[in-house]
Automatic annotation (TrEMBL):
This is Endonuclease V. One of its GO terms (biological process) is DNA repair. It comes from the Bacteria. DNA repair enzyme involved in the repair of deaminated bases. Selectively cleaves double-stranded DNA at the second phosphodiester bond 3' to a deoxyinosine leaving behind the intact lesion on the nicked DNA. It comes from Priestia filamentosa. It catalyses: Endonucleolytic cleavage at apurinic or apyrimidinic sites to products with a 5'-phosphate. It is found in: Cytoplasm. The gene is nfi. Gene3D superfamilies: archaeoglobus fulgidus dsm 4304 superfamily. The record marks 81 as: Interaction with target DNA.
Length: 232
């Protein structure tokens, strides 16, 4: 840990601890109401020693799988990368991009963690307080907490194992497609883990182990980053 980050870590930890009691791992909606799901992802680059980022949000119809809307934001990143506090680095761009949406997503799905986090405050959870919508965390790699490994799910689509640390469920390892590595799903806020898993599986096709909104947001960040790097 860099000494100059000690003050930020103390400040950020305090904010996370203040928000945590407000997290609700239960649905604040009826599942039949899900109509639009937004995928959120960010990408970064450097230019003349400065750090820049772009946030892309892709809204997809829950039933038809068609893209309804795409928006993005970009800007200089001034908060350093500190493990466990990624939200403070990413939130300004996420909020700016979300303000551009004309549609109103029922749920936001993040390329990152939610409750599966050292202090239960991954980007999906933290962002929910600004987006005012249910959120889901979908991570491609496993965040090991307290040296706790996960149990590999069975080799079948939809198989999962819960990630339990100190007798508490943090999230689950979900195998979305037979023969591929699992992804790691966790509640963000205002949604339960069963519904989070159901929403993720609804968006799985034969093109990727990732749900469509997250995969499209990821692809969009690479495209937008290239355009911005070439023009800034």
């Amino acid at each position: 840990m860099k000494k100059e980050n000690e003050g930020l870590i103390k400040q950020f930890t305090g904010i996370q601890e203040e928000l945590l009691p407000q997290v609700k791992l239960e649905n604040n909606f009826y599942k039949e109401e899900i109509s639009l799901v937004a995928g959120v992802d960010l990408a970064y680059w450097e230019n003349d020693t400065k750090h820049y980022g772009t946030c892309c949000i892709v809204v997809v119809d829950y039933h038809t799988m068609k893209v309804v809307e795409k928006v993005h934001s970009y800007g200089e990143i001034t908060v350093p990368y500190i493990p466990g506090f990624l939200a403070f680095r990413e939130l300004p761009l996420i909020i700016e991009a979300a303000k551009k949406l004309k549609s109103s997503p029922t749920v936001y799905m993040f390329d990152g963690n939610g409750y599966l986090h050292y202090r239960h405050m991954g980007i999906a959870t933290h962002a929910s307080f600004f987006l005012k919508k249910p959120t889901i965390g979908v991570a491609k790699s496993y965040l090991k907490i307290k040296e706790q490994d996960f149990t590999m799910p069975k080799q079948e689509a939809g198989a999962f194992t819960d990630i339990i640390i100190d007798e508490e469920v943090y999230g689950r390892a979900l195998r979305t497609t037979k023969g591929v590595k699992p992804i790691f799903v966790s509640c963000g806020n205002e949604i339960d883990l069963a519904t989070s898993t159901e929403v993720v599986m609804n968006f799985i096709n034969n093109e990727s182990r990732l749900p469509i909104p997250v995969r499209l947001a990821d692809l969009e960040t690479h495209k937008v980053r290239k355009e911005l790097k070439d023009n800034l």
